[in-house]
Structures are given as C-alpha cells and as structure tokens.
C-alpha cells in the first residue's frame, strides 16, 4: 500500500483516485503523521500532495529529514516537491517564477517517472514558488520555458518530485507518470481490487464492531445500500436498517429495496408511512414548506423507531469521499450531514459512527456494490432527492397525482434504459406539472395534465447541461405516456440548463 501525505492541496483526492485506478491501495493521512506511524503503516511508497503554503512561511507544514532516510520511495507533487527540496538543503524561492495553467513541459526520459513517455507534453502548473537550487544528488528531470526545475529526481535515493499536477486530466500522461512511480520505483504489483477492498473492509468492520449493535438509516440510494450490504456481510443480524418509506418513492422502489435487504440476513425495518406524510402535506403547495415537512416527519419517524430499538453501539453512515470536507491542512475533516433528508440522527444513543465508504469515490462505491452482489438497479441508481416525488409533483400532493407521475416516470426510465442512455444521462425523471390543457382523444375533448420530462448531463450537479435525447426516443416516450397513463394528454421536454434553471422543478 501507498501512503499519501496530505499538505492541504485541492487535488488530493484525485491523487488517491489515480493511485487506486492503477490498482494500488492507498490511504491519505495528514502530513504530520509520525515516523513511527509511518513505519507501522509500512508503505511501499509515499506521495506528498500539493498545498497552499510556501515553505518559508511561518507555520508552513514542514517535514523531518528522517523521512527521506527510511529507504521508502517518495514522489512529491507541487508543494510536496518544494518541501522535499527545502528539507534536503536545496533552495526554494518564493514568488520568483509564477506559473499557472497548462504549459508545455520538456521531460528527461532517463528519469524512471517519465521513461517510455513523450519528451514533450502539456502539464498543469499552479505554483508561486520554484526550486532554485537542487539539493545534493538531485538532477532536474523536466523544464518549461520559464522554470528550469519543473521536476527533479535522485534515482539512487528513489526520490522524485514535480511542480506540476500529474493527477489532473489536463496533464498529459499524468496517470502514466504515477503508474511509473508505483510500478517501476515502488514495485507495486497492482493487486488492489474492489474484491480485496471488500474483504479488508469486512474484516475491519468485524474487528471493530465485535458483538456490538449497528444501526443504519437505509434510503435505498447507492451509498447507504452498499454500506448495508458491507456491514451485513461483516456482522449479519447485529445490523439493523431502518427504511422509512415516505410514499414518495418511484414506482416499485420501496419493494425493490425490501426485496434486496428484507431477506432476513439483517434486521430490516420498513416503515410504511405514506399516510402520515400525505396527511401532513395535504393542502401544502410551497416547495420549501413541502421539503421542511418531509424532513421533519422523517426525523420524527426515525426517532420513534430509534427509541424502540434502544441504545446501539454504532451508527453507520454512507459518507463517501466527496462528502468529507477538507478543512485546513491535512487532518480535521468535517462530516457533511449525509442523509439527505434529516441529517445526523443525534437522538439515537450510540458510541461511535462507522463510515466504511469514507475513502471511496462514487464510481468505486458502485464497483464495490457490484462486487458485493447488489443488483444493477441499486448499484446504478441515479441520485434521488430526499423529498422524492414530493418535489416532482408540482404544488399540492395527492396519492392520485403521485401514482400518475410514478407511471409516467417509469415509462421514461424504461425507454432510456432500452435506448442504452441511462448511464450517460446522469439524472432523468418526469415531473407532473400543475398545468392542464385541452387535447383530443378519439372523438372527445380532453382537459388533462402535462408531464414534463427532464434529463441532464453533469458531473457535479452544481451545473448541468440538458441532455440531447434523440427525437425518436422522446417520441416513443411521449406516445407511450399519453397512451398508457390516464389523465395525461401532453408531454414537454425541458431544454434549459443549470443555471439558470435548476435540475429539479421545485
Ligand atoms: P437542483 O434542483 O438544486 O438539484 O439543481 C441538484 C441536485 O440535488 C438534488 N436535490 C435534492 N436532494 N434534497 C435532496 O436530498 C432536496 O431537497 C433536493 N433538491 C434537489 C437534485 O435531485 C439534484 O441531484
């Protein structure tokens, strides 16, 4: 395994991701991890990340020289190479040459990191400080027109570093450079796979939980489902999952979740609370008010169930890497309230939180889910808002309207799946507008609802582009919905991006 020492840079997660893509296990730890701890961790290699500081600044993260004398190969990136140069007696000049953005770099392909790669390629630079004098035993391994030491190396000592960021896709051959370090310097064998990860995680959970009890709020989303599956494999019926079905799920979704988790291998509690939610939402039309009521009712139900269970030892959460907010340098990560309806259920009496997905990226969570044998419909489930269809039936909610939307939405999803578009469109759904219009069916006049279809392509859901769904697919969806779903006589497709629109309509 590889150790990534975190100096607080913005791309640190990406470094971990690249290393894992090379099938090498890695963990990110704060830069000030003690030498003793590092020895215990026994990494085959260490990567120093970038960071916002300047090595000469007061309070800048520094290293002890001994770390370079442990015989462990090290790769320093951006601040990581500066701190390496500084600690080993080179000089780093602040503000001497500033470089930002993608720049052509020339490489010395004798250096193992660049061997077998192009002699010139573009790389993402983002630094204020530069290495001015190399430490003893080092050679420059790359330069740009303004920076003579864009990379340095000491092959005998197995120490390498670069000013640019190999972890971002803007840097050509970046992953290949990381791979060279892992395979040709550290001697990695590339045996880290989701299968191994699953085994290790299961063993760790088992060791930690012992004969304790674990509680998990299961929403049926990818993250909480994978956590449920992992913990159930580790401790079986010591795990209790509470699934609050608020009646605002998509068609058959509640039953699908029950089919997967209700087989008796864990304590699975499904609360069918549709009536309670609908009663509280009756007559409410304002979207934010609807959200608030759904969130509150959710907490209330969880609270009631939590009381019945009594105290538990651990509360499990599906927190994943992108949920972990980096604050400051290296350590002290803050948890974002994961469950997207209610936040941390702090009324449940528990000792500790366990978050087995805390180090994983979304695509890795999906791969792990497949590895654990979860069905495709759960592993590839698109993001679904906590308030569910409550914010996709515009205005007042009724059971009839929800059922109508569920049918229309199911047709849309089925057709996108058949057209092979369901993985490239990141979120897609039907909305029941509260508009009715005149139509003609057979010989009769109709006055029925309009269904809006929405599909977006996005990587972060902060901005999104409307999906260019082929006309013939839209045509088929439109025909099917008006024919198969009563009280719908018009279909529109939403062609606004975000911004200025949002993904959801409410
Ligand atoms: P918007 O509509 O804000 O949506 O562009 C961005 C992403 O967030 C989801 N979303 C929600 N998720 N509770 C949630 O848990 C909510 O109230 C909520 N509103 C929007 C939306 O589905 C999209 O993925």
What does this structure look like?
The chain folds into 3 domains: 2-185, Rossmann fold; 194-379, HUPs (Rossmann fold, 3-Layer(aba) Sandwich), CATH 3.40.50.620; 398-493, 2-Layer Sandwich (GMP Synthetase, Chain A, domain 3). 31% of the residues lie in helices and 24% in strands. A hairpin with a 7-residue loop joins β20 and β21. The chain is α/β, with parallel strands linked by helices. The strands form 5 sheets. It has a 9-stranded mixed beta sheet with strand order 2-1-3-4-11-10-9-6-7, sandwiched between helices. Strands 14-13-12-15-18 form a 5-stranded parallel beta sheet, with helices on both faces. Residues 325-343 have low confidence and may be disordered. It contains 13 helices and 22 strands. α5 (194-209) crosses α10 and α6 crosses α10 (362-371). Xanthosine-5'-monophosphate binds next to loops. The site of xanthosine-5'-monophosphate (XMP) has 12 residues, from loops.
Catalogue the ligands: xanthosine-5'-monophosphate
Q: Characterize the main sheet.
A: 9 strands, mixed
- Structure summary, number of beta strands: 22
Overall outline? globular
- CATH-defined fold name of the largest domain: Rossmann fold
Largest beta sheet: strand ordering: 2-1-3-4-11-10-9-6-7
Strand content: 15-25%
Low-confidence stretches: 325-343
What is the second-level CATH architecture of the largest domain?
A: 3-Layer(aba) Sandwich
Number of domains: 3
Classified by CATH, the class of the largest domain is Alpha Beta
Average pLDDT reading: 91
Please name the fourth-level CATH homologous superfamily of the largest domain. Answer: HUPs
Query: Considering DSSP H and I runs of 4 or more, what fraction of the residues is helical?
Result: 25-40%
How big is the Rg?
27 Å
**How many alpha or pi helices?**
13
